[in-house]
Each structure stands twice: as structure tokens, then as C-alpha cells.
Design goal:
4 copies of one chain form a homotetramer. By secondary structure, chain A is α+β, with helices and mostly antiparallel strands. In chain A, about 25% of the residues lie in helices and about 20% in strands.
């Protein structure tokens, strides 16, 4: 299932060390102005190699629109976006061909498919998120005229919550050949009330699935989240007044449907599994081995997950907006 | 979207105070023995009115199989299950007809549809979960021959983690006309490696969507969950030995695919929003009002969510098992 | 796949000689007035036993709305409709338990599932169409306010095209213990231009799939249909003038999208496979046997397919209308 | 909806005069050997410009595999295939920018989307079928090891049924600046019994939808097709003996499920709508105009539809094979 969404359907493809990574967006409304320059800044934000605390892989990550626009405007036809891979040091991975990296999908992918592209994780690489970000950039353009904006930020890394302390934690992990986890918060403002469906199509269910579908994410919460387990009903319920809700413990969603307040989502990001520290593992024959993952890796993946999480939220919201449009469909109303 | 699942597709229907609640299961494999007596115990576990700390609504909740079996065995045709509603004191809700209950879907449903069935929450009632549990009971029967078992439990209520303290918290909330939240943990044992799909169809993404789709759930985590944000890679990665993984920080899922270890999920349940304590709200005309929700409500909904969460996990797993079966499909292998 | 439609999703269930036949409609817009009395006339039209040329099975076929309406109006929640089976002479089928009836799905169902409910065809019975007609009646109510109406008629039976000759053909088949095929034409008027999607979601593709999905249908054509193979482009193309198209060889659909003209569909209905004439077959053990299908069967099924085909067209159109509503969704337009 | 299939999901993209045409295949089983050289011959068969009776557009149509294979074998990851457009004489279409070509989707696309790419039909061009053929070539590779083969042929053009007469009809149409329609028959051999689903997922319903989804197709029939309307049950039913069915009036499908016999499908292809003969039309402002479509067009499109129809049948069958694999999923069997 490499397709996300019911109405604004994004199908991603491509491996870390294959020819290209890309996405086909089916269901984008016609009449939206869209150029490569609208998408590129999102890819630039996500790109590695921008600083000393990030993977040193150097990719220009230039997006090309192959279809779906005419004279700079979307036509309603599927929009294909591709980014060619360049800086593929597949040789870095030769030593890993027969080893299962702990914390990675190597073992499970082998169990599932009986074979795998070992170069940089192949399809399971974080590089796949590039395609999501490209699609999310288009989603953001669809949401902007509706007044919806999305903003993510890191709120915690390895227990630290201040910016300097966070940087220090990441630096220390890098220097130790290790990595650290963190928490990212994403907020959507300007979202109208009424988005989402009751029962299985709840807006928070869609968001939870979208966020947990990002590699390295181990937890998702909305509004008070796990903190709600320690509250009473009198504390948790958001009072309603003529001026609207007076608090937002719900995180903008009640009964699976948006309230019109800010939608607030937090996700737990595990430490990057690729570390230089020696770990125990087995090879494909089941023989015990030791492994130290060299290559080019981020000591903390949370910063680079921020734009990905923003884009996943954008995809969920644009999909819900299109779904909701159907309720203005035919009928005696 | 009242349908859950891609292969084992469950479509639920029915309102709290309508004629019946039910589910149609499409895609259940043929040849599985199935009688009403196989399903009833699951409904009995979920049923309210079993003790002083639960809603006093008395419903026999007798399930009837309308289709899909022949001589006690599933045929591959859709299985329709219905439960007639009996103890409908719709009158309890007359006073709420024009009021939006804080913490409920009343306001958002009105914003979405422009009208609503106010009686007991209508479709947004927890009574809808009865249909999920009936479907989950069928899923459990499909999983049993594969050696997969699922077990849930309450691990925290309003900060308390011991059984007596938990009961005291619930009792205190009830006596105060208030309610409390909690945390439920669900574990699946016996699950083979290889379930789930990379990218958007990850097993943990499906679980997160399924769990967050249960009313009152505000957070979902797998394995270490939010705790992973405070770990280093060396701590989080589960070492692999010839005898298998030596720890399970991942909670049984790596890269979205099951590892063969126990799948461990925790969910945050908010306090029941229906409380007797007076709250501020508005009526449908926007006029400020006060509300005290009488009716028959659980002071803590977590205990009754346990079987629902187990059933949602069963539905995700049976769906993944059927999806995975396709990889033994046609081809040069 | 017992679900039809993407937006107005109908999931049918039930066997010919089971407890009930029914449908759950998910995605019906809210605010449409709907009572059992709105649906019943459609079931009455489809019902057998109305005349000497039809099956003598007597079923009251009373529909019951179980959910999805409140005070006589749809709420947006799933609408469950059921019809209890009454006149089940399952004993009629005891002799057929181990035999494969030629022209029926007995052999193929056994090949697919490894078991089957032999009573009256079980799930493969024409009785399943009752659920489609119930759903179609709701679709018709959604289409009416948009000015769309659908009308079907028999245009040929066993070569005869006049009403008296048609009746004579059916009578002769019945008297000979045989059956005859026919052609049904269905026309939708008042349909706006712009429905349907390019490529795989073409309106005519959806119609063709819907019609071929009716048991006994062996062919579908739109507009000139197979006659188009004998025309030149100059004859086939419908000229466009300021007053609109001056002919309708296209049958109301160009490039998969409605033109605003009448949508004209014809379907080929094979002769009822259940005949008293002795036929060769085998039993479940592969032993050669002879079979004469007694029971209660229509000598020509085309008349009873007319309301079913109308309802399938209604379902396709309401689904397309809801899909099209999304193009008025978010965006810079 | 630019995606076809439930399990072997093909999403096509690209316009006639855009940068590229392509397809992403999601759900292809792993372990199938696949090189560009396996796909290219199918594109070559479909390519225009091979003879005097075809469009003179010259396109090398070289396919490139962007993802989804590793060391020449499919991995289970999505397979992206693209073909760059070369011989784009968009200028040929400048005169048509504001005109609606009769028999084309120009008018309906404008009605649907409010704008369109007029160059060569944009997304509605027959060039889109190139992506289907690329996907179909992969499907054929999946089917081959199962012993399934698919073969199409022209059986009628403008009333002629012999090869020489057919060629004469096409030549005459070309010389007259006109075009002619025809009938294509496609047969699948080696298909096992048991494919397809009852009710809405019938194999013939899927085939009908797939075939009618090819531009220019106006009718689809299976086995006897429309001829069945003129038969009696005694003639139509295929007798079953210990050696199998003794005839194949059903065309290999009974009750929507394959019988194990040849699957026989016929489709009616309308005359190419682009003709030099002067036709009446209107421009985008509604003003009456005359039009003569120059450009490079096939006087009969049926020959080039043969490989497309074969590929669509291959896609339906591989999808059904994967669906059927699920019935060997979990359960007490």
C-alpha cells in the first residue's frame, strides 16, 4: 500500500539508491497554480547535509513536474513529480548486504518478501519521505486559499526541551557514535469545523495512521493525549460559550470531527537506529555477527521529521476537505 | 466511512436509541465454524450494567447471525450480525435536544451534517462499539487457528496503577459526579513476522488508526512509545541473536512490519465526557446555558474499552494476514 | 466484494433461503426525507409472483429501516435496510444438494470456496438483487431533486420486439419447460454534463461494470454500442451546435464523461438457466447425472431485471454526482 | 480515478503532449524477473507509425524502470515506468484550442473541469493507453508462470470480416478523410476456475468495466453476449460432463466466476472521431464553427486497441489471482 488518501491520493515510489523517488497525486482539484518553484522549498527544508548535525549525504533533490499541469495550472489530471537520485554511495552498504541492522526493517522485510534491496534501506529508507514532502507541498497550496496553515517544531530531544540543551544532546550523541529520540509537535490553524467522519474515518484516526506511518514514529497523541489519562472529566471537557470553546484540551477534534480550533498533534520519534556503536545481530544465514553502521546518518532524526509530519497533516486535511465537499452534493437540502 | 479493513471489511451501522446496531463482515474466509454462541461472550464482556461502577443501562445485547453461514460454517458470503436495542430511555435525552454536551461530538456533528440524532449520542454513542466487538469476535475465531491471541488490561486510571487504587479512583469520581481517564494496554501474542506493509500501510499505522478511531482515545503508542523520545539508539535498538531478539523495545513492529515478537500497544482514554457536574455550554441557537448530564454513564470508560481495543487489534491483524496471503500469489517464485 | 460504489457505498448481504436479505448504505447525504413507504414500491415492482409468467415464489418483501434516519430524515449515518425471507421452500432444493445446475454458479462457487449453500443458489440467487433495488430506491430519492429520472424497458425477447410477440415467446418457453433471453434498455434523463472521470473511472466504465454485475447479463452497450462498429466517423460523431448536440449516437457519454444528453444503456440478458428440460451435468463427486430443475422460476428473467438495471444506473449516477461535488472543493478557483 | 485494480494497482499519468507518460504499479509480487526488455515489445506493438494505415506520429516510446526492481527482480516495492514524449507537434493543435472536436472529450472535459489541455487531447488522448500497456506487460509476466496467455484479434471492421476486406475498408476511409469502427475479440486461455467474486466483484463485471474504460469502446460482451438474447435456456446452458463443459456459450464465466474454460470477450470500437471531413461544432464561447481535424490519426483505431485490450484483460486477471490468494489465508481449513 504505497497510496495515501481517499480523494487526494498520493502514490509514492522509489528506493534510496535507485534511479529516482517520486509521487503521483490523483484527485488534485483543477485550477490551482503550481510550478516546480512552489514545491522545491519544501524539499530543501527536508534535505540532508545542511548542517553538522545532519547526514552528510548531498542531494540537490530537484523536483520535476512530469504531468498534470498546463500553462502552470493544475488540470485535474494526475500530477507526477520525480526527483532523480544523485549521491548514491551504494558501496557504503556492501558490508551490510547480508546483515540485519538492529532497529531497521531489514529483518522484517526479508521475512515478508523473501528478498530485499539492501542499499541504504531501499524502499524503507527515510528518503521515501521526500515523495511525501513533494505531495504535501501541493496539499499546502490547496489548503492555503482556505486559510489553513500548518507548523511543526521540536519540543523535546532526549529529555531536553530548550533549544540549546537540545543541540547539546544531539551533539553528544553524535560524538558518542550514538543517536537520540525526540518529540515533534505539529499544529494546524484555520481549519473549519466539520472535517472528519464519525466511526472509522475519524479525523484523529486518519492523523494517527498518517503519523505512525512515518518511519521512526512510535507514538501519536492529540490535544492532552496521554495526559488525558490523568485528568477528570471536569478538567478535560472544553467549555463552550457564545464566543466559542474556552480551552482546547481536545486538540481541535471531538468525536473524530474538527471543532474549528487549532489541531494539535504530538509524535514520539525514536533514536536513529543507524549508529556506529557496535551492536549484536545475525546475518541472513542466522549466524551471530557484530555490526557498526557507518554511512551518513543523522544523530537525531526528529528535526528532519518536522517537515514530513507537517506534510502528512496537510495531506490528511486536504483529503478531509475534499471528502466533506460531498456533503454539499445532491439531495433535498 | 463506516467500513473498516481492506480484506476483512466490517461495515457497522446503528444508533444508540435506534432499532438495532449491527455489522456486515465482507471478506471472511469460508470454512470457519461460527455460531451465535461464539460471538455472544464478547458482547457480554462489553455490556454495561454489570457492576456498580458501570452505566446502569440494561441491554441483553443478543446477537443474531442473519447471513453468511450455512450449517454452522462460514461460506465466504457477507456475514450480517445484528443486535436489537431494548432499554432505550430516549426521554432521558429530551432536555439535551438543543444543547451541545461539552466533550461530546454534538457540536461537531451539527457543524458537519447540519442535523443530528440527539438521543444518547445517536451514531456517535459508545454503543456503536458493540458492532465492532461482534466483528472482532469473528476475527478472533479466524486468528485462533494461527496461534494468535490478544489480551488487554487497564494499566492506569487517573494516575493510579494498582487495582485497588484504580477502583478507588473510579468510585471517587462517581461520587463526585465526575469521571476519570486511564490507559489500556493490549498485547497480541503468536503473531508471525512479515505482517504489515511498508510506507502507508504499516502495521503500526493501521493499529494507530484503528485505536484512535475508538471514541475517547487521545493517544496511541507502540512498544516504548513516547518513552523512546528519551532513549538513545543503543538503548532502543533490540539486539538480534541466533535465538531471536533479546528485547522488545520496538513493541513487535520494525519498519511497519511485524517482527514475530509480542505486539504491544497502549492507548490513552480520556475521562467520560458525560458528567453530572455543571458545565458551561451553548444551545443550538448559540445562547449560553448550563448543563448537567444525568442519564446512565460510566465514571471511567477505560474498563469497557478493553474488549473494544482487543477487537480492533484483532481486526487489524486478520486484515493483515489476508493481505499477506497475496504474496503467495502468482509469479515466478 | 459485496460493496458497490465509492461515495454512496452499498454493502449487500443475505442468501435466498437464509434469514434475511439486506443492504447497508454508507455515504448517503444527510437531510433527505426517507421512510419505508418510499422504498417499498420499488421492491413491489421487483417482487416475483405477480403474474402467470413469473416465478410463483410468494414473498411479501417488506422492507425495514434499521438505522440512519431520525424523524423521517437521513442523518448521514449508515442506512441499514433489511427484508426478512418468508416463503423458503428449501426442500425444493434437496435433490440439487450435490448437483451442479448448468448455467448457474454452482460449479464455479464450489471451485472458488470449496463449499456452498445450495438452497436456491444461496448468495448467488437473483434474490440478492432485492437489496440492490432497496438501495437503488434511496439513490432515486437523492437524484430526484436534481431532476434526474431513470426508466427501463424490455426491447427484445428471443428475437421478438413487439409486446404481444414478446409475451408469446415467454409463454411458449414456459410451456416447453424452457426459457428465453432478451434485451433491456435503460435511459437516464436530466443528467448534467461533467459526470464521470477520465481514464479508469469513466462513467461508461462504471455503468458497464454495474450492469455486467447483474446475474444473467452477458453484454452491455452505450449509445450506438456494437452498431458503432459498422459506422463511419462522419456518421457516429454527434455534431455540436449552439443549441447543443443534434444527435446522440454517443448515448450521452463522451470520453467517459456525461454530455448532458440522455444516457442510453442496453444489456443482453441470457435465458434463465433453471429449466425443466433434462440437461447433462455432474454431481460433486464428478459422476455424470441428469438434471431437471423444478422449483419456481421465471421463463424469462428480463422483465424482472428491468427495475434492477434501473437501480444499478441510479447507484452509479448518485455516486458520480457525489464524486463530482469534490471538484467544488478547496482551491484557488 | 487514474488507478486500476485492487491488488495489482496501476496508477497512470501523463498527457499526449506533456513531458512523459507513465505508470506506477503497486502490489506486484516480489521475485519476478523484470527488465526493460520485457516491457518494450508490448509498447512496440502499440506504437503508431508502423504502417500506412496508422497515425504517422513517430515516437520511440522507450520505457524506463525507475523503481521496484533490484538486480533484475521485482522486490514488492512499487514499480514506476516512464516513457518520455518526443514527437510533440503541439502546434498542430493551435487551431483547435478553442474548438470542441465532435466525438471527443473536449466538450465534456471542459464541462467537468472548467479548463483543459487541448494539445492532442491532453490526458484524454489515446497516448494514455501506452501506460496501460506497460503495466499490462508486467501483468503478463506475472500470469505466464500460471499458464495463462491472452490473445486479441480484429474480427470485424465496418461490416467486413475477412482480412483483405478489412484492409480495404480502412484504406477507403482514410482516402475519404473519414474513419471506420470495428470489433475486437480477446481470449484468455489457461485461466483456472474460481477467479472473480460474486455480486459486485464479478469477473465479468471487472472485465466489462476495464474494457469500457478504453477510449472509443462502446460495447462489451462475454461469450454469446448479445446473441444470448436470442437463445433458449436449453441452447445457452453449457452441459457439464465428467470431461468438463461440452460447450462455452458462457465465455468462461458463470455467476461472475471463471469456469476454467477460455474467457472470451468482444468489444465494439467506434470510428476514430478525428476526421478531415468538415463537421459542425461550436467554440468555447458557444459560437457555431466548422472543423476539420488534421493532425496524425488512425483511420481505424481497432488494430491499435488490440494490445490495449489484451493488457486490460491481463490486469483484471492478475488482480483476480491475487484476490483469490486470500482464500488460502488464515482459518480452520
Amino acid at each position: 500500500m504505497n497510496t495515501f488518501g481517499r480523494n487526494f491520493r498520493c502514490t509514492t515510489f522509489g528506493e534510496s539508491h535507485g534511479k529516482a523517488v517520486g509521487v503521483v497525486i490523483d484527485g488534485c482539484p483543477p485550477g490551482i497554480s503550481l510550478m516546480e518553484a512552489d514545491i522545491q522549498p519544501y524539499l530543501d527544508r527536508r534535505r540532508p547535509g545542511k548542517g553538522p548535525l545532519e547526514s552528510a549525504r548531498q542531494e540537490p533533490d530537484r523536483v520535476e513536474i512530469l504531468s498534470g499541469t498546463f500553462e502552470g495550472v493544475t488540470t485535474g489530471a494526475p500530477i507526477a513529480l520525480i526527483v532523480r537520485n544523485r549521491d548514491q554511495r551504494s558501496g557504503d552498504y556492501d558490508a551490510l548486504r547480508d546483515l540485519f541492522r538492529p532497529g531497521h526493517a531489514d529483518y522484517t522485510w526479508q521475512a515478508k518478501y523473501g528478498l530485499r534491496d539492501h542499499r541504504g534501506g531501499g524502499r524503507t529508507s527515510g528518503r521515501e519521505t521526500l515523495a511525501r514532502v513533494a505531495a504535501g507541498a501541493v496539499a499546502v497550496r490547496c489548503l492555503a486559499p482556505c486559510g489553513i496553515a500548518i507548523q511543526g517544531r521540536i519540543i523535546e530531544v532526549h529529555g531536553a526541551t530548550e533549544l540549546e540543551a537540545i543541540e547539546a544532546e544531539i551533539r553528544a550523541a553524535r560524538d558518542a557514535g550514538d543517536s537520540v529520540g525526540g518529540i515533534v509537535e505539529v499544529t494546524a490553524t484555520g481549519c473549519p469545523a466539520g472535517l472528519g467522519d464519525p466511526v472509522f474515518g475519524k479525523l484523529d484516526a486518519a492523523i494517527a495512521g498518517a503519523m505512525m506511518g512515518i518511519g521512526a514514529v512510535k507514538g501519536v497523541e492529540i490535544g492532552e493525549g496521554f495526559g488525558a489519562a490523568r485528568l477528570s472529566g471536569g478538567e478535560m471537557n472544553d467549555p463552550i460559550t457564545a464566543g466559542g470553546f474556552t480551552s482546547n484540551h481536545a486538540g481541535g477534534i471531538l468525536g473524530g470531527i474538527s471543532t474549528g480550533q487549532d489541531i494539535v498533534v504530538r509524535i514520539a520519534v525514536k533514536p536513529t537506529p543507524s549508529i556506529q556503536r557496535v551492536q549484536k545481530t545475525v546475518d541472513i544465514a542466522g549466524k551471530e555477527r557484530e555490526i557498526s553502521v557507518a554511512g551518513r546518518h543523522d544523530p537525531c532524526i526528529a528535526p528532519r521529521i518536522v517537515p514530513v509530519a507537517e506534510c502528512m497533516l496537510a495531506l490528511v486535511l486536504v483529503d478531509s476537505m475534499l471528502e466533506q465537499a460531498k456533503y454539499r452534493g445532491p439531495g433535498e437540502r
